[in-house]
Amino acid sequence: MTDSTKPEQRSEGTGTAGALRGVPEEAPGPENPTPESPSDKSVVRLGDRIFRSVATGSGIFVIATIAAIGIFLLIRAIPSLQANEVSFLFSREWQTGDPSNLRFGILDLAWITVASSLVALILAMPIACGIALFLTQYAPRVLARPFAYLVDLLAAVPSVVYGLWGALVLAPVISPFAVWLNNNLGWIPIFADGNVPAGSGANVFTAGIVLAVMILPIITGVTREVFARTPTAHIEGALALGATKWEVVRTTVWPFGRNGFIGGSMLGLGRALGETVALTIILSYTYTPPNYSIFDAGATFASRIALGSAEFNNNLSVGAYIAAGLVLFIVTFAVNALARWIESSSGKGKE
Amino acid sequence: MRTDTADVEQPAADPAFQYLSLGRKLKNNAATVVFTAAFLIAVVPLLWVLVTLLQRGLPPLLNADWWNHSFYGLLPSDFGGGIYHALVGTIEQALVCALFSVPLGVTVGIFLIEYGQNSRLAKTATFMVDILSGLPSIVAGLFIYALWITTFGFDRSGFAVSLSLVLLMLPLVVRTTETMLRIVPDELREASYALGVPKWKTILKVVLPTALSGIVTGVMLGLARIMGETAPLLILVGYSRAINFNLFEGPMASLPLTVYTARKTSTEAGEYRMWGAALTLVLLIMLINLLATLISKFFAVKTK
Amino acid sequence: MAKRLDIKDLNLHYGKFHAVEDVTLQVQARSVTSFIGPSGCGKSTVLRALNRMHEVIAGARVDGKVLLDGEDIYAPSVDPVQVRRTIGMVFQRANPFPTMSIRDNVVAGLKLTGEKNKKKLDEITERSLRSANLWEEVKDRLHKPGGSLSGGQQQRLCIARATAVQPDVLLMDEPCSALDPISTLAIEDLIAELKKDYTIVIVTHNMQQAARVSDQTAFFNLRAVGEPGQLVEIEETGKLFSNPNQKATEDYISGRFG
Hints:
Chain A contains eleven helices and two strands. By secondary structure, chain A is mainly α. Chain A has a domain of about 240 residues: MetI-like fold. In chain A, strands 1-2 form a two-stranded antiparallel ribbon. In chain A, helix 2 crosses helix 11, helix 7 packs antiparallel against helix 8 and helix 8 packs antiparallel against helix 11. Chain B starts with a helix and ends in a 6-residue tail after the last helix. By secondary structure, chain B is mainly α. In chain B, helix 3 packs antiparallel against helix 8. The N terminus of chain B is likely disordered. Chain B is globular. Chain B folds into two domains: about 40 residues; about 220 residues, MetI-like fold, CATH 1.10.3720. Chains A and B meet through helix 2, helix 3, helix 4, helix 5 and helix 6 of A and helix 2, helix 3, helix 4, helix 5 and helix 6 of B. Chain C: One of its GO terms (molecular function) is phosphate transmembrane transporter activity.
């Protein structure tokens, strides 16, 4: 049945199978090419070879896609950046209607983006952590799943709906509180007067709250998973020492899951930085530069691009928006990469 | 007599268990309250959004015309009209997106689980999938604009939207496939190999069928997710109040784009249509979510 | 059909871990050979090397020769898929394909490698299920899923599946370890019958089972944890259990060790 004609060929004993599966440090000999290579000297069926190539090709395609995003955005941004009459990084202007006189800078966009995302993060982080603890440690077993599903439902609501809700329903309700903050804590710079009245509701304050709701399920999801992985032995060890539930959480669950929580929060941050439509609807666009207060209005990177989509009619003007998109891409890339790195180191430090 | 007994039992009157100090008890109770409150706080916006949608969006949906008419020919002040044109657009764009992203994403998942093992290529691909899943949708739209419209010279169209949605959908499909392939027991793969079945056939005929219902569920959840995307639509396609079945030509409505556009009609009728479209969108998403849950419940393959 | 196996200087590795050292032994056609020994001695690893299942695990490596009627199954021109077709395997836990019916499970090996003739497949289904002593129990529900059977039935289904492709050799990796005594007995009876047509190698933890079913028995041991496993001796079963050549074997079978 085995159609070998030269059974003696393997007498050096260099392990065909080993070479095929790849144990590089122990597979010497010139006839052993790189491990994992399908063209290895052992017989590999045509079907397997094709299938493997297709699968590998798709993996390469994903990598190439990310590279292509960076490259194409860069190529399209460069001519506009060269034609820009003002500093891209430090100008507060955004005049792109006339391709022969491009004046665009991202300073104000960066402020609105960062401010609204930070407000969202500050609000969402403690709540998400609390929810994750509640769902994994406190909620009755039977209810934990439906409760978690309820929180996940927050992620199923499209951002355009959050935008409507934020601008038309939430803003009027919270603007008295915004006015109160502005009147009583106005001496703190971030609560000072913004470039629109605090009572208008179309400001970073409202946007941050809506963003917080939007990123809540993301942070909760990651954190819940990590908290749930706390080794039972740790928890039972603490319980056996007479710890209260809170003490168990503080001494075992929290140290174990802290990095996962931080990683999840970074993922939420990445999402908040790139959120577009909700903020386009909530923030009123104004030509008055922001005052570095949370009662500012204006545009984030993403919402500025969305607002500009109407004037996508010549490559130079579009290039300005693409340049802003490139910055957003780089920032979210970095934030996401950091998030994954922190998350993957979760639970390892405190073993 | 009585005092005697009390004296005798003096030592035993010590509690059998050590009492918790008041401080520890208070802290413990406070923590319980705080964590429960955190959960309740999260439920508030969910209910608030849903109630708002039902209150303001339900009236248009109760009109039969809503489901088989478009907004074509309506004056800003006209009530009436229907969401059919936007439903067509949303469903077409999502299906074409699935047509590309599902085969590609499943193949990437197969590569990562069945072939990649711990190779450097697989690790890089995993990282890139992570990055893709954090890609802002507006950037996906800009990229397709730069590639498909500026570089290749095509017009803005529903198809361009589908392409950008592929970028957003792909990581969801890959993640789902990975998770589902991972829970297929190795014993099944080995049983197949031991019968002399080649690896590729083992994957196609044994591993994938076992993981299928999970993958389908994940794909549907992904579809529900991308149907709500609005940002790339603003860049990649014009809005149309009429029905357009052609993905490749002309402006095309979709539910999120309709919501966004109707907001600019600042009449009572405009708002009426806006909330109607928003509720329709959310109902569609919930419906697909529900279907996905049912599939995973009734078609799951039991693998011990 | 049944063929002889010659194992020469077999060394097996998992990455840098040397799992099995210098195993040389022969398995006669139409006989049952059991591998016994303490946990971790490498007996299952050797078994998996006999149909090239060892290399499915990432980092696994094989040195030495395994000859099937004189032909090296590790020769460069040999397709591992072909080897596994010729040398079948039954696993510790019954693993019927959950997406397939009982019938499709039996003929999975044939169907997945291209056999389409329905009549032929039906014949093979019946023949294989009969030879696995399962036909009478399942003939009325061939289209029910394989997972609907009891544990012992599932394991016999897996044996039927393995014999349906008509291999020359049948490897069994602790086939009864997850079964109750009655199902175990059924499988042991089956092994005695299958011996007429197949060369059988069985790994077992159960020394009584080895004594009951096998013609020759190989005892594997390891000097210490972390050291490679070795073949201590291989002997006619009756002799190995009554009068072993090695002290280590005697210690093991008399319960003084392992």
